[in-house]
Amino acid sequence: xxxxxxxxxxxxxxxxxxxxxxxxxxxxxxxxxxxxxxxxxxxxxxxxxxxxxxxxxxxxxxxxxxxxxxxxxxxxxxxxxxxxxxxxxxxxxxxxxxxxxxxxxxxxx
Amino acid sequence: xxxxxxxxxxxxxxxxxxxxxxxxxxxxxxxxxxxxxxxxxxxxxxxxxxxxxxxxxxxxxxxxxxxxxxxxxxxxxxxxxxxxxxxxxxxxxxxxxxxxxxxxxxxxxxxxxxx
Lengths: 109, 115
Known about the structure:
A: mainly beta; B: seven-stranded mixed beta sheet; 0% helix
């Protein structure tokens, strides 16, 4: 399985943008890039996914490098409720998600 | 839609007892996954089903663990006999289709404590 590398932790001020990086240098052409997050004491929650082009939804934006070897999850205005562990995951098809350690995001008022 | 439903939310039992965790996936989803989360090992896949058939159970720790999916709307994960090292949060997730595009929807989890 292609692996991802994320920083262990990041910190942001409330109402500021947050850029969460992910490296996936061994990504294959058929791997989708998924982001999930897990709030304290809750199950993982889907955030966004993409293949080649940048993607936007109501929760976040996903910026994918042209060579697809890295991506960035962008939270446009962090709130205290965005404090969570964010997982960057490559998904081919039909297979379970391979969660790594993720990035623990701390949001301070 | 109620999402993925798991029961019980919390379970405390004594070593050696049988434990049964239950999951109702989202209607229409044909993939169902059981995960376990601990501080030491993080989130790890135990088993997953496609159309009620177990596809990959290589993550099941040992013979004490078994999972079934008798129909499209119900799955169980059973531990018999339970041991203290089985203490963890167990998540069930479901997904529609097998494409890499398909996201997984997780339940709230069952927190299991084995004394």
